[in-house]
C-alpha cells in the first residue's frame, strides 16, 4: 500500500483554505495531489474514482467535508470498508503511516502482512488487510465483481517482463518507458517489489507517482518508519 501525502487543505483564489460544502468538489484537488489511483489497492482509475471518507460520513457527519478525512478509493475498496465504526489507531493508513512497511507483495500480486514486523504490528496490518479486502483472491464469481487481484497479477507479469527487457537493453529510454508503463498500469507496490534491486528505478517510481511520501524512505530509498506515524 503506497504511503501518500495529501498535504494541507488547498487554497482558493482568495488565498484561503477551501471549504467543501459538497465533498465531491474535492475530487480534482485530491487527484492533483495523489494521482488517479485508489489510495488502498493502487488500482488506476478514471471516472469511477470516488472520494473515500476515512471515518464514515454517516457516523461522523461533521467530517463529511473535512479535507483531512478524504482519500481516493475504487468501488471494491470503498464497499469493502463500508460504513464500519472506525477506530483510527486499530489500522494503518496510507496518509498517516508508512504502509509500504506493513505489507509484502509476492509473486502473482498476492498481498500479505510483512512477517518481519513485531507481533502487535502484524495484528494491526492484518486488520488493515481485512478492512479493505486486499488479501482477497476471487473464488467462484462468474460476474468477477472484485478484479483487484486479477489486475494486480497482470501488472506483476508486465513488471517482470519489463525487468527482463531492461536487463537485455538497459538504456535511458527503456527506463523512461518502464516508468510510463508503471504509471499507466498502476499498482505502485508491484513495481517497487519487482524492481527492488534497482535503486535508480525505485527512485523513479517514487518520483513518478504523485503524492508518494518521500519521508518514508531514507537516502538510499530503504523503507523507514514514517515521522509521526505508527509504523
From TrEMBL:
Q: Which residues form a coiled coil?
A: none
List, for all copies, the residue spans of the domain called HNH.
Answer: 38-83
Q: Does the keyword Nuclease apply?
A: yes
Chain ranges passing through the membrane: none
Species annotation: Symplocastrum torsivum CPER-KK1
Q: Which domain of life is it from?
A: Bacteria
UniProt keyword Hydrolase present: yes
Q: What is this protein called?
A: HNH endonuclease
Origin organism lineage: Bacteria, Bacillati, Cyanobacteriota, Cyanophyceae, Oscillatoriophycideae
Please give the Gene Ontology molecular function terms for this protein: endonuclease activity; nucleic acid binding; zinc ion binding
UniProt keywords (A-Z) are: Endonuclease, Hydrolase, Nuclease
Amino acid at each position: 500500500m503506497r504511503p501518500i501525502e495529501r498535504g494541507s487543505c488547498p487554497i482558493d483564489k482568495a488565498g484561503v483554505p477551501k471549504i467543501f460544502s459538497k465533498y465531491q468538489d474535492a475530487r480534482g484537488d485530491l487527484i492533483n495531489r495523489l494521482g488517479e489511483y485508489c489510495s488502498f489497492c493502487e488500482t488506476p482509475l478514471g471516472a469511477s474514482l470516488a472520494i473515500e471518507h476515512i471515518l464514515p460520513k454517516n457516523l461522523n457527519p461533521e467530517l463529511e467535508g473535512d479535507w483531512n478525512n478524504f482519500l481516493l478509493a475504487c468501488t471494491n475498496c470503498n464497499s469493502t470498508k463500508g460504513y464500519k465504526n472506525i477506530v483510527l489507531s486499530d489500522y494503518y493508513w496510507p496518509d498517516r503511516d508508512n504502509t509500504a512497511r506493513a505489507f509484502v507483495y509476492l509473486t502473482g500480486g498476492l498481498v500479505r502482512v510483512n512477517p518481519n514486523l513485531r507481533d502487535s504490528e502484524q495484528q494491526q496490518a492484518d486488520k488493515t488487510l481485512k478492512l479493505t479486502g486486499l488479501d482477497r483472491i476471487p473464488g467462484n464469481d462468474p460476474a468477477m465483481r472484485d478484479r483487484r487481484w486479477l489486475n494486480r497479477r497482470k501488472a506483476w507479469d508486465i513488471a517482470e517482463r519489463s525487468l527482463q527487457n531492461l536487463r537485455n537493453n538497459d538504456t535511458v529510454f527503456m527506463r523512461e518507458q518502464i516508468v510510463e508503463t508503471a504509471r499507466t498500469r498502476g499498482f505502485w507496490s508491484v513495481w517497487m517489489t519487482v524492481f527492488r534491486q534497482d535503486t535508480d528505478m525505485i527512485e523513479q517510481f517514487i518520483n513518478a507517482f504523485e503524492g508518494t511520501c518521500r519521508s518514508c524512505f531514507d537516502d538510499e530509498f530503504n523503507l523507514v518508519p514514517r515521522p509521526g506515524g505508527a509504523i
